[in-house]
Design brief:
The complex is a heterodimer of chains A (467) and B (101). By secondary structure, chain A is an alpha/beta fold. Chain A contains 15 helices and 11 strands. Chain A has an 11-stranded mixed beta sheet, sandwiched between helices. Helix content of chain B is 37%, strand content 4%. Chain B has a two-stranded antiparallel ribbon. Chain B is flat, with a radius of gyration of 23 Å. Classes of the chains: A alpha/beta (467), B mainly alpha (101). At the A-B interface, helix 9, helix 10, helix 11, helix 12 and helix 13 of A face helix 1, helix 2 and helix 3 of B.
Chain lengths: 467, 101
């Protein structure tokens, strides 16, 4: 069967009209993944048995004329830092190579409860630390739009799986751009929800004040369906809250364009594709105005202090005892050194060390406290700009998807790939990344950034851009 | 990169690796000494931010403390068994570790 551009809405229609069964649909996706995985490597684990049994349950419901849920029979992929009970959950790391998830993450309970079919676990930068999926201990994912290039990261496997029509939608996580940048590089839609909108229970923590789980999908409407399925308060994640009611769509929006985001260093092809979309919106009668986010230049530095500090604490749990294989050692300290030194990859060790350093005696105030103060200024920038406009339109990445291996030797260059996405996590606001054209056959993406818990405006504006 | 460069010494790098409980080879220490110095050089940018009276922000949304009763909840055996199976070594249903003292 033809899987190209099959959306959640198409699948639901097809299942109801009995054009295909959930089993046929699932088997077709699994076959496609198995055929293409050597090349694209979007999946670390293919969950054929689970997927087939879930699909059969959906077919049974349809056969019996039962009411079916919004995600019933929808083939989905899940980033490998989110736990699906009884499936491996490696977070892209050797230290968790043999780890089997003992329970479902809240988001998985939710999508399973609504009938989704889970096809497997997707590749990612190790512990979500990377912008290209090249730091995965199991090898890089390739961009389905151009196999010589990276799919972005860290949710590169999820983005590639959606772009390659290996699933209808996927879950990812975004700490500094890890849903939006791969969505942009692979030409799909991705949402970083407001901090607190979605429970992180069952997701391997990287930087807890920044991490959010969100959807990747083929259309804005599909991203919205998945977001609605996973959001909400959960007692097991104290930061999660119930969302306020969605706002009704406006006829005309006031949209801000941050002047600090259109500066030297951006690929002119990316800039012109985004500006073209902005003039399209203006022609449609929406008000476009310049806004200022004056502390943008400090965002990346601020992020690398806060995120690595939190990571150094969060990753202390991987001790080779509770998690991860023991690697020997006579004393408890030697055992830590061996398990962690051998189990973590180069980028994870780099970030743990940076976090350990900036939190250490004598440097805490100069780095960590200062970064937290800068963070409040970055958040204030967004509060002010978003008091003036309904949403902000900005680039996702300053460049087109780069070549595999191009940036792996220079950590600072790799970090700069996230220059436009990182502020959003620091401010906790939501952002929807979506395709806005192509340059030399490669996708270009833009992001729509909104007020806290105002995802509905992002979806409404996104649908206007989609046309 | 702009700003002053903060060069870490080899001893400092070794000390950080020790604090972070990471067993690294000589060659790795040398590599991280270089990498971390470059990153610290970049993050020095923050020194030029005018922070004025800005308060330190830990969470972007108004997070409240969520409390519950401190009570032991008996979990189904199946669940605790799954958790134990992740341990690298166990004895009598408990996590086995090396002597701490």
């Amino acid at each position: 069967m033809e899987l190209k551009n099959l959306t959640i809405k198409d699948i639901r229609g097809g299942l109801m009209k009995k054009e295909f069964s959930a089993w046929e649909l699932t088997a077709a996706h699994l076959d496609k993944i198995e055929k293409e995985n050597d090349e694209i490597f979007a999946f670390l684990h293919i969950a054929r048995d689970l997927a087939i049994s879930q699909a059969k349950a959906v077919d049974e419901k349809i056969k019996n004329g039962e009411q079916i849920g919004i995600l019933e029979g929808i083939p989905m992929a899940v980033k490998d830092n989110i736990m699906v009970q009884d499936l491996p959950c490696t977070s892209g790391s050797k230290i968790l190579q043999n780890y089997i998830a003992p329970y479902d993450a809240t988001v998985i309970e939710k999508i399973k409860g609504q009938g989704a079919v889970i096809l497997g676990k997707t590749n990612m930068d190790e512990f979500a630390m990377g912008s290209s999926t090249e730091t995965s201990a199991f090898g890089p994912t390739r961009n389905p739009r151009d196999l010589r290039r990276v799919p972005g990261g860290s949710s590169g496997g999820s983005a590639a799986a959606v772009a390659a029509n290996q699933c209808a939608a996927a879950l990812g996580s975004d700490t500094g751009g890890s849903i939006r940048q791969p969505a942009c590089f692979c030409g799909v839609v991705g949402l970083k929800p407001t901090y607190g909108a979605v429970s992180r229970y069952g997701c391997a923590a990287y930087a807890s004040s920044l991490d959010q789980i969100g959807p990747l999908a083929k259309t804005v409407a599909d991203a919205q369906i998945v977001f609605d399925a996973i959001r909400g308060r959960d007692d097991r994640d104290a930061t999660s809250v119930e969302m306020p009611a969605a706002k009704t769509a406006k006829e005309k929006y006031r949209l801000g364009v941050p002047k600090e985001y259109f500066v030297a260093g951006m690929d002119p092809r990316v800039e012109s594709a985004i500006k073209e979309k902005i003039s399209f919106l203006e022609k449609q009668g929406h008000e476009i105005e310049e806004v200022s986010l004056p502390h943008s230049e400090f965002a990346l530095a601020c992020y690398y202090i806060i995120a690595t500090s939190e990571a150094s604490a969060n990753l202390a749990r991987y001790d080779g005892m509770r998690y991860g294989a023991a690697k020997g050692g006579d004393t408890v300290t030697d055992a830590y050194f061996a398990a962690r030194g051998q189990g973590f990859g180069a980028e994870v060790r780099r970030r743990i060390m940076l976090g350990t350093y900036v939190l250490s005696a004598g440097y805490y105030d100069a780095y960590y406290v200062r970064a937290q103060k800068v963070r409040s200024l970055i958040k204030r920038d967004f509060d002010r700009a978003l008091a003036q406009v309904d949403a902000i339109i900005a680039p996702v990445s300053p460049t087109l998807p780069f070549a595999i291996g191009e940036k792996t030797d220079d950590p600072v260059q790799m970090y700069l790939a996230d220059i436009f996405t990182i502020s959003v996590n620091l401010a906790g606001v939501p952002s929807l990344a979506m395709p806005c054209g192509a340059a030399d056959g490669l996708p270009v993406g833009l992001q729509i950034i909104g007020r806290h818990f105002d995802e509905s405006t992002l979806f409404n504006v996104g649908k206007i851009i989609e046309g | 990169m702009a700003g002053c460069t903060h060069m870490l010494s080899k001893e400092e790098t070794q000390h950080i690796a020790k604090l972070a409980r990471l067993g690294l080879s000589e060659a790795e220490i040398e590599k991280y000494q270089k990498d971390l110095s470059a990153i610290l050089g970049y993050v020095d940018k923050l020194k030029s931010a005018d922070i004025g009276e800005a308060a330190a922000l830990a969470h972007s949304t108004a997070a409240e403390n969520v409390l519950r009763e401190d009570e032991a909840i008996l979990r189904p055996e199946q669940k605790t068994r799954r958790l134990r199976e992740a341990f690298s070594e166990q004895k009598g249903g408990c996590l086995k570790v090396k002597a701490i003292l």
